[in-house]
Amino acid sequence: MSTTDRKLSVTIERFPIAGVFSIARGSRTEAVVVTATITEAGRTGRGECVPYARYGETVEGVAAAIEALAPAIAAGLDREAPQEAMPAGAARNALDCALWDLEAKRAGLPAHVLAGIDRLGKATTAYTISLAEPVAMAEAARAARERTILKIKLGKPEGDIRRLEAVRAAAPDATLIVDANEGWRPDVLADLLQASADNGVALVEQPLPAGEDAVLADIGRSIPVCADESLHTRADLPRLRPLYDAVNIKLDKTGGLTEALRLAAEAEAQGFAIMVGCMVGTSLAMAPAMLLTPRARFVDLDGPLLLARDRPHGLVYDGSTVSPPSCLLWG
């Protein structure tokens, strides 16, 4: 390979959300993504990330961090190098996934085969119900009646039991996941976990703020609790082991597919159930995360379903079922 053949470009793109996406921390009407594209000898590898202010990221800062690696990319940087050169986060995710895509196209093999996965099948994904008043959330749940798994955004403790009961009444047969997005408090935690159990919730995500979740070690519960904001990479697992039953692996937190695959294997070995999740992005961001679905008990890759439009050659969704990506999209 002639290293002068390689070029990196970075773009910022905006995709309108269908309606409003609301969680405990706020609402938004568009997804702003950063895409890394690496070209080499007529081949193209792409990776998309979603900068997240919760983790101190800005769109401009993430784009600049990726662009700073352009000389190294031109010099032949391989997929392992960014694991040491960049911190875990959105910028490394876009670059890592672009390198995976390029490697797959160079080898003429699907990315899942390069990752040691014999077969990548369809998966059943959750569908998100945004945080709102109980009546509005119930209406949204009824409108999504063909979805078999609903992920309910909560995090406003004073009204969350009413929201949960309204959604359960509107969707009596759906599997429910509750995501509090760090919005609950220790003084109401036991009551809200019990209400979740009473309403047949299968999993509660990140009920308390990351770093303030030690109380989970002492809370008796009859429902699994999953770490999201508290989990980024394998280095977090020892602290989380006494606190959580499951971990939500998102590529924008792990810094790409390379660390995500290693994290999933290590978490599974330590007894955690695996959830694979996403930020609100396009099918290009979901595609590499599909490689984690064979290990996952819960899949939440509904980002494109929340958008008003997706990329060309996007993932194919049939109700709650999502198919693996076409090589025209990624991998």
Secondary structure layout plus pairing:
Blueprint: E1 7-23, E2 26-40, E3 43-49, H1 59-67, H2 70-74, H3 81-85, H4 90-107, H5 111-114, E4 123-124, E5 127-129, H6 134-143, E6 149-153, H7 157-170, E7 175-179, H8 186-198, E8 201-205, E9 225-227, H9 237-240, E10 246-249, H10 251-254, H11 257-269, E11 273-276, H12 283-289, E12 298-299, E13 317-318, E14 321-322
Parallel strand pairs: 5-6, 6-7, 7-8, 8-9, 9-10, 10-11, 11-12
Antiparallel strand pairs: 1-2, 2-3, 4-14, 13-14
Q: Could you characterize what this model shows?
A:
Belongs to the mandelate racemase/muconate lactonizing enzyme family. It is an enzyme of class 5 (isomerase). The active site is at residues 153, 250. Keywords: Isomerase, Magnesium, Metal-binding. Mg(2+) binds at residues 179, 205, 228. This protein has two domains: 3-108, Enolase-like, N-terminal domain (Enolase-like, domain 1, 2-Layer Sandwich), CATH 3.30.390; 123-322, Enolase-like C-terminal domain (TIM Barrel). α9 links the parallel β9 (225-227) and β10. The two termini are 20 Å apart. It is of the alpha/beta class. The strands form three sheets. The protein has an eight-stranded parallel beta sheet. It contains twelve helices and 14 strands. It has helices at 59-67, 70-74, 81-85, 90-107, 111-114, 134-143, 157-170, 186-198, 237-240, 251-254, 257-269, 283-289; strands spanning 7-23, 26-40, 43-49, 123-124, 127-129, 149-153, 175-179, 201-205, 225-227, 246-249, 273-276, 298-299, 317-318, 321-322. α6 runs parallel beside α7.
